[in-house]
Amino acid sequence: MLGVSLDYYDIAYGSCNASPSLESALGYRRIFLSNKDVKIIDAVYRKEAIEGSITLNSSDDKDILAVIKANPSAIVFKDLHINKKVMERMKESDIALCLPASFITCSYGLQRSRNIYLMSRLFAHAKSIKLDVSFATLAMNNMHLCSYIQLMELAKLLGSDEEYARKSLSKINNSLVRK
Amino acid sequence: MKTEKRRYILVESALDLNLQEWSSFEHDFLKELLHNIGEVNYHSANPRIMKYMGNRFVLRCNLQRYKETIIALTFMKRVGGREIGFYTLNASGTIRALEKPKTIT
After folding, report:
1. CATH classification number, B6-89, choose in 3.30.70.3250, 3.30.300.30, 3.30.470.10, 3.30.70.120
2. What's the CA gap between A93 and B35, in Å, rounded?
3. Could you tell me the pTM of the whole model?
4. CATH of region A9-178
5. Nearest-CA neighbor of B15 among B85, B80, B76?
6. pLDDT tens column, A80-133
7. Which of A2, A104, A147 is the closest to B87 by Cβ?
8. Which residue of B8, B41, B104 to mutate against A (max A Cβ within 10 Å)?
């Protein structure tokens, strides 16, 4: 992969003030913002709003299968628990699993340690069934944004290899918004 | 004697760094880094701030603990009682190379 120039993308909430100069300093071609470039929906089942968006749901949500049918571009498991059946359905429907770095950076101490463990297990299972995994910050403010170097190291901390981390930050993150 | 291989990391603060007002920044920063990286890793990373450039500074660490240092920097959200964030913009084996325009590969 060395020597090949890649464009990296991040996804954050609209409350971030990501200017073009900050985007390029952090090494991204673009930081996609919610309500501008992409929709981020928090656990509310509204079929018409879900298509093409990133939804935040619990893995055991009673509406989770309906959410998958509504064809979002990615799903974030808020509880970080593995639901094998749901993840299989996501794979069949070509829906990515999003692992937000903010779950790690916004927590402290034992909670952070637990989140790293749960996210690494989630990543390992997703990789074993060949489900696309998107690493993004989903930052609520500028303090929680990361450069692409930091995001790649966090991806490696969760068990990804360098090649997959690069693919996730470039191709997969871009495809979530284009969907 | 084997020489230590080092890595220089260009770090940007999300908060304005006014070092005249915040004279204990380096001490507060390294204390928080120690908290996040752990005592054993801190010893082998041997981090030092080499140079300040406005809101940016060059952090030196041991090459073997480069990854741990980057992750610890990502985890640091509060220094000296102030909310802050750190972005690692570039990393290199020499300070001079950090000042060159960055090419992403």
Report:
1. 3.30.70.3250
2. 43
3. 0.90
4. 3.20.20.140
5. B85
6. 999 899 999 999 999 999 999 999 999 989 999 999 999 999 999 999 999 999
7. A147
8. B104
